[in-house]
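Appendix B. Raw example, untouched.
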Amino acid sequence: MDSRALSMIVQNGQWLRCAHDGTALLPGGGVELTWHEDRVERTCGPEPAPDWPQPSGLAFDEHCGGLWSSPPAGVVTGERLCLRGLSKPGALAAGSRQRLYIAETGAGLVTVVDLPSGRVLRKVPVCGRPVDITAACGRATVLVRRSSGRYCLMVIDGRRGPLPGPPLAVPCWHERLDPIRIAAPRHGGPLYILWRPADGGEALVTTPDGAILLEVAGATDIEITPDKTVVIARLPGQPFLRYQQGTGLELEPLAAPGYDGGAIAARPDGTVAFTASGTIGRTAGSAARHVTRGTVVSYRLDSGAYRTRWGRVFVDACLPPGTALAIRYLTSDADDVPDPVPYTPPDRGARPGVVPDGPPLPSALLLGEAAPGRALFKRPGGSEVPWRQYSPDEGFETYESLAGAEPGRYLWIELTLTGTERVTPRVRGVRIERPGHRLLDALPKSWSRDDGDAQAMYEFLALPDGVLRDLDLRSATRAVLADPHATPQEALSWLAGFAGLVLDRRWPEPARRQLIAEAYTLFRRRGTRAALIRTIGIYLGRPPVIVEEWQLRGLGGTVLGLSPHGPAAPAVGGSARQTGTLGRFMVGGQAAGSDSYTRTAHRFCLLVPGTLSEEQRAVTLGITEAHRPAHTRYELLELGPGMRVGARLRVALTSFVGPSVPWSPAVVGETGGPVVLGRAATGTRLGETSVAGRVRVG
């Protein structure tokens, strides 16, 4: 197998060295058509002064339940929670420990609420007016305005706090700025501060040390999504701006119909929500209007040898319906470029005024005379990289062409992207073989003595050479087929056959790969409780809980006392032989005519967290039928949003773990009166309509 090198343009640092016209950079590398905001044009009259809305609060718990505040009414409302009597509740933050933090600006407090129970745990004074609050990794960071007018950051960590937070430095700017919002990733990361002047001019996004990251006009709120995207809300009627965290690369804005300027928040599922006149609204997709045509001219690619015949060209692109991609090539053996194309940076993603160093751009005269390129066709086998697979959600495919230019050491390419205002093509990377195939060397020289004949024969042999090279590369890396996490999707069933598995297409692809990886381990434990839990856990992505009936049977077979209201205690040795009762005392037991073994043996309950769809329920039942012991019986229970035991008991919804107000504690050794645990009944079973714990002592 010959060793051919590749010249590549894949990283954003390489795309920055190209000349752009109407294009923007993609996150992670690549280009697309640039865009402008889709906003309503004013027909007449001057632009009115912005009417800054009253800030409020918005947060989501881990079950995507929304909570929002109403400062004038002193109320925090949610799907399962309603708190009243608060003093101007403003910003909200939901922590990972199911804690809700409320900034009471009127009282100078941060109220900590337990979300499952709705109970107020603490009221933390912060020695000032809390302006905003964010929660991450079990702790809350509060932006506080002191009575002196200065701002600081404070931290509430569990029961500790308020503690001093990181120092807050004022950014260097030409006018006075005040911090209005703070944000941090839900699972930890850098803290972002949003500063805005009093008149609402240019706002800044900085780190606590004052380093300026972004400049945005008319900003009202800031949020960090789970995928590390910085979202900045502006005045009502304006789209939300988005930037890639770390690089500051601007992404397509999001439409926010109905936004009232109060607050925005990222839901746990990654979507962005906002307050909308007493309710919660969601963003409505991209608000960008793309230009319909753009070009990218590459810098000079060097093969290292003169008179090089360049080989195949591979382009990783996403071409939705209504879009197109064209490519042209220019080659040369001249080391100097007298009239290079002027450098123009991408419309979005480049640093202003910075011209990157790199190889020269092509000659403007020669590029204008270059012939149209060959058509790109989608490779039916995917990427030329052996066994490489793209995610179906990405939409990218590999397209191939042949660099049909004259032989030359240097090569330039020109990409022309065509789309619509709503849809744009995207190019992630370009790879060119250097040199191309050498099959001409195996033919008689008379077939390639003339340059025209040689070029025609070279292009004719490029197709079979490409097929042979792809087969060679796949053969050299065939060990990938034995790796369940790297093998292509079409080979999963083939690999599963070695373990005697028949894959269910209803399983997600990652679950099928993991099942193959653990097949032999699961087969060794097949029929056990651990194997059933692990198999279902692989499919659902979260492990279920198995509760066997014998674990809840109580005391089987023996009843002390016929009833808690039976006859009085007899004298020992007298009527005790006749009544069979010893005092008014009953513990557990079973109903007449049954025993604990008959009612509980070989039975179990499968508790699944969350709510299953019809397909998930069918697959889960199929797994249980196939992997449970054949003599057992079972019941499938979905816990829904909370933990459930039986059919009625829901912890934190209909019952609570711990003492309640009307009950008095029982003290061992004291006889102050009867103590009741649950209700009087003879045992209980998981899955019935009875309440766990119908047992009376005393």
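End of appendix B.
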